[in-house]
Amino acid sequence: MTELQEVQITEEKPLLPGQTPEMAKTHSVETPYGSVTFTVYGTPKPKRPAILTYHDVGLNYKSCFQPLFQSGDMQEIIQNFVRVHVDAPGMEEGAPVYPVGYQYPSLDQLADTIPCILQYLNFSSIIGVGVGAGAYILSRYALNHQDTVEGLVLINIDPNAKGWMDWAAHKLTGLTSSIPEMILAHLFSQEELSGNSELIQKYRNIISHAPNLENIELYWNSYNNRRDLNFERGGDITLKCPVMLVVGDQAPHEDAVVECNSKLDPTQTSFLKMADSGGQPQLTQPGKLTEAFKYFLQGMGYMASSCMTRLSRSRTASLTSAASIDGSRSRARTLSQSSESGTLPSGPPGHTMEVSC
Ligand code: BEZ
């Protein structure tokens, strides 16, 4: 678990008035499952968890999260948190292709690399934001290290292992589709793919011309071989922290996320189904997702209303009876548990919020 290399990069990103440029620092750590690269933005804030992201198959941290973290409204959130964006092994920019026969880690093993990252950075707690395979990895990590996870935003999570029917369908599809097309069908809805918008063209191009396509296939295989997370409502295997489940309506994983919602603790879980957002709400609706994220953080006692813009402050005031202030975390958590006013706009936590755009 020792450091390999450190690369200092200055990111180009549009700055808001009064903002100073933030440094992005890319690190690699050796883990029992190979080297893992991650990029840290911002500086650690005392008594605050880091936001740690984990991307889906076919993407890396930038192609998965840049539109969300660079969206205008997100800036007032992220200035309060250090961010750690993990690239799954072999997905980082410029990653060499693994040799044939390389034993790529399972999703459970990838979850086991997260403590190495946190230990290296000397961070003790996180709010995880994961998409697809990344959402699974962060959930597995949270099941094993619940004391270090303050909250989870899980986009397109499928907590179930593939059943034999899924495998048969997967094998059949594999006879007629290339790996990039199968991954695109995992990321986007059929409607989006046939619409062939600029976004789809961009991601089709990124994935089908990826110089590390062999590595991507290994991550894809690990995703398809995932074990069941075995969530059980009221049982021992459950997420104990506040969770925001997110899925686009008509997204490929809508049913899986709905089922996941039914298995988690309703007092800790909010379910955000986003209309017209396709398979990747963080790419297509970063503004809406940012707003929900803000309410989620507020329910956890972060994001005082006083540090919000006037627009979001007035919206929040009308939606929560007690705006949380920094340091009042237990009160805010109680509020969210008591289902009184809710952390999210149109209903108490543990309920569904549908956002139409
Ligand atoms: C961030 O500020 O956290 C960020 C910037 C660029 C890409 C991804 C994340």
List the helices and strands and how they pair.
Blueprint lengths: L2 E8 L12 E9 L2 E8 L8 E5 L6 H9 L4 H5 L4 E5 L19 H5 L2 H8 L4 E6 L1 H12 L4 E7 L8 H13 L2 H9 L2 H6 L2 H11 L4 H12 L18 E6 L5 H10 L5 E6 L6 H4 L1 H14 L10 H10 L9 H9 L14 E4 L2
Parallel strand pairs: 4-5, 4-6, 6-7, 7-8, 8-9, 9-10
Antiparallel strand pairs: 1-2, 2-3, 3-5
Bound molecules: benzoic acid.
Keywords: Cytoplasm, Developmental protein, Differentiation, Neurogenesis, Wnt signaling pathway
Protein name: Protein NDRG2
Subcellular location: Cell projection, Growth cone; Cytoplasm
Structure characterization notes:
- Belongs to the NDRG family.
- This is Protein NDRG2.
- Contributes to the regulation of the Wnt signaling pathway. Down-regulates CTNNB1-mediated transcriptional activation of target genes, such as CCND1, and may thereby act as tumor suppressor. May be involved in dendritic cell and neuron differentiation.
- This protein has one domain: 3-Layer(aba) Sandwich (Rossmann fold).
- It has 15 helices and 10 strands.
- It has helices spanning 61-69, 74-78, 107-111, 114-121, 133-144, 164-176, 179-187, 190-195, 198-208, 213-224, 254-263, 281-284, 286-299, 310-319, 329-337, and strands at residues 3-10, 23-31, 34-41, 50-54, 83-87, 126-131, 149-155, 243-248, 269-274, 352-355.
- The longest helix is centred in the C-terminal third of the chain and has 14 residues, at 286-299.
- The chain is globular and about 50 Å long.
- Benzoic acid is lined by residues 11, 13, 41, 62, 65-66, 69-70, 78, 83, 85.
- Residues 11, 13, 41, 62, 65-66, 69-70, 78, 83, 85 line the site of benzoic acid.
